[in-house]
Amino acid sequence: TADPPAATFFDLNDGAPEWYALDKMTRITGNFVQIDGELYLQKEGGQARILIDVASGSIGTDSIHQNLTLEWTGRLSEIPDDVDLSHHYILLDADVTDTDGDGLSDDAEDALGYDKWDEDSDDNGIGDRQEVENQE
After folding, report:
1. Domains with residue ranges and CATH for the chain
2. Paired sense of beta strands 38-42 and 49-54, if any
3. Rounded Cα gap, residues 111 and 122, in angstroms
4. pLDDT by position in tens, the chain (length 136)
5. CA atoms of 83 and 69, how far apart (whole Å)
6. pTM listed for this prediction
7. Residues 9, 74: contact at Cβ < 8 Å?
8. I want to staple 102 with a disulfide (CB 3.0 to 4.6 A). Which of 22, 72, 119, 126 is the partner?
9. How many CA atoms lie less than 13 Å away from 104 in the CB half-sphere?
10. How far is CA 64 from CA 123, 127, 130, in A?
C-alpha cells in the first residue's frame, strides 16, 4: 500500500480555512494555551488561534514543551456551535513529531540544541529527554 499524503501546512495568519482544506491532515504551528477551559493553538505573538484536540499520550503538553512554539499535526475539522450559531475549526487527534523517539519533540530539540535524529545527541549514554529533565 502507498504512504498517506503528507500533511499540508496551515498558517493561522491566513484566516479561516476554505471548505476544501477541511478533513485533511494538517500541520499548524503555534503555542499551546488554555482559555476558559478550552485548549487552543495560538499564533506566536498574535491573537489568531484554533481549537485543538490533543492525541492521547502526546508529549507536546508536558512541562518540557510548555512555552515552546511547536508544529502540531492533526485532522482539520469544523464543528458547529449551537449556542453561538456558528462554526469553529479544530485540529483533531493532534500531536507533535518526535523523529528519534526520545520524548522530545523535533521543535523542542531544535530550540534546545539537540539532534532530532539522535536520541542521545552527545553520545554520553544519557538520553536527550533525561538530560533536559536533569536540568529542570
Report:
1. 1-96 (2.40.50), 98-136 (no CATH)
2. antiparallel
3. 16
4. 667 667 777 776 666 666 555 678 889 999 988 889 989 999 888 888 899 999 999 999 898 998 899 999 999 888 777 777 777 889 999 999 999 999 999 999 999 999 999 999 999 999 999 999 988 7
5. 31
6. 0.78
7. no
8. 119
9. 25
10. 21, 14, 11
Assign 73 to helix, strand or coil.
Answer: strand
Round to whole Å and give the CA distance between 21 and 18. 5
8, amino acid identity: T
**Residue-by-residue DSSP string for 78-133:** EEEETTTTEEEEEEEEEEE--TT-SSS-HHHHHHHT--TT-SSTT-SSS-HHHHHH
